[in-house]
Structures are given as C-alpha cells and as structure tokens.
Amino acid sequence: MITVRDLHKWFGDLHVLKGVSLDVKKGEALVIIGPSGSGKSTLLRCINLLIQPDEGDVIIDGVKVNEPKIRPEWVRQQVGMVFQSFNLFTHLTALQNVMIGLTKVKRLPKGEAERIARFELERVGLADKADAYPAQLSGGQQQRVAIARALALNPKAVLFDEPTSALDPEYIREVLDVMTKLAEEGMTMVVVTHEMGFAHNVADRVLFMADGVVVEEGAPEEIFERPKKDRTKAFVGKILG
Amino acid sequence: MTKSFVRRRIRLTRSLALRIVFGLIGAGAGLLLVYLAGLLGVYDLGYALSLLPPRGRALTTGLLTTLEFMALVMPLGFGLGFVFGWARTSRAWPARAVATTYVEFFRGMPPVVLVAFAFLITIVVFRGNDRIDIFALATGAGVMALAAHSGAYQAEIIRAGILSVPTGQIEAAEAIGMSKGTILARITLPQMFRISLPALGNEFASLIKDTSLLSTIGALELTFQGKNLSAVLAVGGGNLDLVIIIWVEIALLYFVITIVVSRALQAIEKRYRVPGLEAAQL
Predict the structure, then answer these.
(1) Minimal C-alpha gap between A229 and chain B (Å)
(2) Disulfide engineering: B76 pairs with which of B102, B146, B147, B205, CB 3.0-4.6 Å?
(3) N- to C-terminal Cα separation, chain A
(4) Residues of chain A contacting B2 with CB distance shorter than 8 Å
C-alpha cells in the first residue's frame, strides 16, 4: 500500500532523512518509534507530501506520488493525517470540521457530506458533540474529531504523528481505543508514537528510527523483547524502564 | 442550511436596526440636553432657534459630505489594508517589501500632512487644465490620502489577524487536500476576520473623525461648515453662545455616526462570535 524507497531530505545543511525505506501492506498497522529528532515526523510528512522529499520514491497504491505531474492535493486526499496538536479549525464546529474536506475538497453536496460526517463522528464516539466548537471539547475529544476528519475522506491509509503526546494522561486511553478499533477494522496505519503499550498490542510491525535511518524493524515482540541492535536495546531499555 | 442562514441574516438585521435606533435615541437625548440648557438660561435659546434654518442647511450639507467621504474612505481604506496586510504575510519578498514600504510611509506621517500633499500635488499637476474640475479631483486625492493612511493601520491589523491563525491549522487543511485558495477563503480569512473585527472597529471609529481633516483643503464637510459658520458669526459680531451651540451640534453628529458604525460592527462581531476566537482571549 505504502512503499518508501531510499528517501532523503535535507533542511539546509541538516540531513534529516538519510535513505529511509519502508513498506506498509494493506490493512497493516506500522508503528515507528525512536528518539526525538530522528526524522519520524519528517518521514510521515514526506509520505503525504506536506514536505517534498529531496531524493527517493514514495509509492502509494502502486503510484509514485513524488512526481511533478502529480498534484500533492490529490495525494493528501488518499492518505489522511492526524497531528500531535489536533489542529482542528477553531471557527468550525466538530461537524463542520469533519464536513469541510467533503464539501470543499471532494465537492460533495451538503446533505451527503453531513451524513458521512455524522457517521464518522459516531464512529469516534462523538455523535453528541457535533455542534460543539473545538474550544468546548477536551483534548481527547478534539483528537477524536481530528481522526474523524481524516477518516471522512475515506483515505487508503492514515498517518498518526504522535497523536497522544499533547494529551493530558486521562484522555490518552480514549484516543488509543479509537485507533485500536481502526486497526482492528483493517485500516492501513502508520503511527509515530511513544505509547509502547499501543505499539506492543496493536502494531503488526514496529520500526525503530534514529538519526534519519531505520535502525531495526520487526514484530513488536522482536523489537521490544529481543532487539538485535545496540541502539534499539538502549532506546527500548530507557522507554520500558 | 439556507433556511437557517436566512434566519440568521434576519436576526442580524434586526439587532443592527435596534442598535441604530439606540444610537439615535442617545443623540436625541443629547440635543434635548442642549435645548434644556437653553431653557435654563445658559444661552439665548430664542436667538439660537431663530438662526436654525440657515445653520441647519449648512450642517446638512456638511453631514452629507462627511457621510459621502466616509462611504469612500472606509471601504477604500479597508481594501488597501486587506491587500497590503495580506502582502505583508506573503512568502514572496517583493510583495512583503512593497507592503512594508506602504505601511511605513503612510503610517509615518500625520494624516493632515498627507491630505495637504495629495491636494497640492494634484493641483500642481493639473494646473491650467480647464477641461476637468481640478478642485474636485484634488479633493478626491485628499480622500485617497486619508484612505491610504488608515489602510496602513488596517494592514497591520489584518496582518496580525492572519498571523494569529495557527500554522498547524494550515498544515491540517493541506493534509486534507485543500488548495491554497480554499485554505485562504475557508480557514485563514474567517478566523482573521473574527480576530480583527474589534481592532477594525476601533480604526473605523477614528477614521470617521479623521474625515474632519479634509476641512483643511476646503471640502464642504461638517467641520468645515463649523469653521465657516463660526467665522461668519465672528465677523458679523454674532453671539459666541451660538458658536458653541454649533460645535455641540457638530460634535453630536460625529458622535451619532460613530456610535451607529461601531454598534453595527459590534453586532456583526456578536453574530459571528465563536468560542475560542474571542479577541479578548488572544
């Protein structure tokens, strides 16, 4: 579903991604872990072309998307994204936040867009908050609306960029539950997270990144219990205490 | 959707009308106070009333001219402010450079000086050309100068409004595949507009009174009429009380216009208020 081949990205002199490759099969949940500054967020943003990679290929559903002839807007409709800081549109209600991509990007009629949006809000357990503005929602609720907003466009895959890192501890569970349900429903997911419990229980595969390269990847048990590389051992040791 | 929109429109119109009525009642109360002061013998009421028709005519002309200037200066100033404020946030440096130069130039000089420059330069440039009404043209230039001055202030208000929209929201909009134009129209502008309204209202309120600066180039607006009437009365050995009355009347007229405009803007502000986007919170 998503293939990344030998991806490089520089910010000025800073070589952030140094030849990253990965493969996500349809229906798979891939969790990316690694210390901050290792290029995880940049990698996610290169997949939906929020950042244009400098070298290498991003292939989504068999189509190489980092090509000048392909509109990034089109690519982003295929791959949803959920951000650390939710980034809901402040001036729109929860329902309107979910609807706007349908009406203004997919150009669906209002009635149909509203039907889909209500369904997606229901899916994240927020049907009763449709008319609330982001400022009236808790962090956990905001993040669930953001997930509904990404799902509404019926993406082929969803990227999660540390979706629980900005949440108060009491709201982390509800967001992880929604994500777990999604993974069980067979959504293709790439998740950057520090939630090792989630990585352990939900991920099909875990990928450890450091300094812009993939150090090691494998099944969650392999990475967490029998890491091969020293860097992985050190990181996992610190995280799991 | 459309139905609720129409309903909202009606509600807005109704609350706007209500506010304007309140403004007028306030002004009426002010005039009543002036009249009462006359009754109590603070000034010669009979004399003041006897000169009501000529002064009424002059002040009506002045009021209409002032309203006309407002109708020009407010949208022009807003248009300039919007375009240059937006350009100030542009990623293209030439756009930023032009906009910054505009803002610094027109904000850096007293509006009365700008008005004088615009007026005089127009006169000099078109001197001797008798096919056009040079005075009207020069007055128009003065009006433009005022709009440009206010536009410089409004550009900064707009710029602050645009910058207050979190970049994360722009990124989120990009991530759902929105085009740049849609992001501007659907995400940036609606938030900018709500955040900027109170400051814009403030700027409009001061702009209304700045139209009085056009009296310095002989435009027949309210303040000019006031000066003119005062001068006529002074030369004719008239009553100083009446001069004061005239200026009270002029002050009240400005007051009413300002109240009506700022109340109208407050009504719009209230109508579009959204939790989390109140200017007070920012």
Answers:
(1) 35
(2) B147
(3) 34
(4) none
Buried b (16+ CB within 10 A) or exposed e, B149-159: bbbbbbbbbbb
Judgement on whether residues B22 and B58 belong to the same structural domain of the protein: no
pLDDT of residue B3: 54
Whole-prediction pTM: 0.85
Query: Does B274 reach chain A within 8 Å, measured CB to CB?
Result: yes
* pLDDT single digits (tens) A71-93: 999 999 999 999 999 999 999 99
- Which pLDDT value is given to residue B128? 84
Lowest mean pLDDT of A132-141, A150-159, B2-11, B123-132, name the range: B2-11
In this structure, the answer to whether residues B29 and B54 fall within a common structural domain is: no
Task: Answer yes or no: do B265 and B249 share one domain.
Answer: yes
pLDDT value at B282 more than 50: no
Q: Are B18 and B107 part of one and the same domain?
A: no
Q: Are the beta carbons of B20 and B263 closer than 8 angstroms?
A: yes
The predicted pLDDT at position B8 comes to 63
Q: Is A149 close to B277, i.e. CB distance below 8 A? A: no
Which of A74, A133, A146 lies closest to B177 in CB terms?
A74
Q: Is B132 exposed, middle or buried (0-12, 13-18, 19+ CB in 10 A)?
A: exposed
pLDDT given at position B4: 57
Beta pairing, strands A14-24 & A157-161: unpaired
ipTM confidence score: 0.93
Q: Which of B176, B196, B274 is most worth mutating to test chain A (most A CB atoms within 10 A of its CB)?
A: B176
Three-state SS for A28?
Answer: coil
A167 — phi, psi (to 5°)? Answer: -95, 145
Verify that B22 and B104 share a domain, yes or no: no
B182 and B94, same structural domain?
yes
Taking alpha carbons only, the member of A229, A227, A203, A205 closest to residue A218 is: A205
Tell me whether residues B1 and A110 touch, CB distance under 8 A. yes
Question: By the 8 A CB rule, do A44 and A58 touch?
Answer: no
- Give the C-alpha separation, A163 to B227, whole Å: 67
Is A83 within 8 Å of A161 (Cβ atoms)?
A: yes
Same domain, B117 and B59: yes
Half-sphere exposure of B72 (CA within 13 A, CB side): 18
What's the average model confidence in pLDDT over B79-86?
A: 96
Domain containing B144: what range?
A: 43-271
Q: Is residue B277 domain-resident? A: no
What average pLDDT score do residues B86-99 get? Answer: 94
Q: Are residues B63 and B103 in the same domain?
A: yes
CB contacts of B4 in chain A (<8 Å) are: none
Collapsing DSSP to helix, strand or coil, A142 comes out as helix
Q: Which two tokens stand for residue A53?
A: 């990679």
B9 — pLDDT class (breaks 50, 70, 90) = low
Task: Say how many domains are in chain B.
Answer: 2
Which residue from A156, A232, A164, A150 is spatially nearest to A193, judged by alpha carbons?
A164
pLDDT at B17: 76
Could you give the C-alpha distances from A159 to A30, A48, A71, B41, B114, in angstroms and in order?
Answer: 10, 9, 19, 81, 55
